[in-house]
Amino acid sequence: MPEGGGFNFRRKFLFKIHEKVGNVEETQMTAEFNNDVQKYDIYRDSVVKLVELLEAVNQPNPARVECPKDEDPYDKLRKALETFQQFLQEDKAGQVAKICRTLEQAAKTKRDYQIKRRACIRHLRRFDSLEYKLLLENRENFNQAKANMDLAKHEVKQAKTTEQIERRAVLYQQQVEVFDEKCNKFIKLLEELPTIKSLHSKDLTDLVQCSREYHQAMSGVFK
């Protein structure tokens, strides 16, 4: 375990023991650190599933934000009534025409709120492609830096001469500093999860409020 004075990352996340991988002793992270990583991964999987379900409820066609014009069930019902309207008596036809106008407005209102509801969950929708993608990139950098540091330490131990020891010790210290930097960045991203969860919670609150407004608007259309 490196003990260089340049270390400033959170030591609580590192074991002072090593595990051999081949001939190289591998620095092991604490259970606390590994649990934090696992919790982030589990949360990501839950968010992806949640977004899929919310978007399916809002718009069954994942290729569209809102239902295309004339393809909403209200539109289809309106078109069916308009087609049949010619066979009705004049007094009945007038009533059907009024219903058709209501259905047209209902379809428009529904499309408007499909767009609004999707906007409500923007942080949830972007989590996988923004925050989680950044975490994966930093995790890869962290793992590579850790492997490089462990290998550099192994090479110091394998040195046969004073000159080799001094040269390899310098390289090892450089790898320690790189690991320090990558570890700090990775841990910082892990620690941002509570803030991210708060944003996601607000998304859901906004979605519920928007859904409430949608039903109120539809109630006004059909009154």
From TrEMBL:
Coiled coil (residue ranges): none
Gene3D superfamilies linked: Arfaptin homology (AH) domain/BAR domain
GO CC terms, sorted: cytoplasm
Domain BAR, residue spans: 17-218
Protein's name according to its UniProt entry: BAR domain-containing protein
Biological source species: Angiostrongylus costaricensis
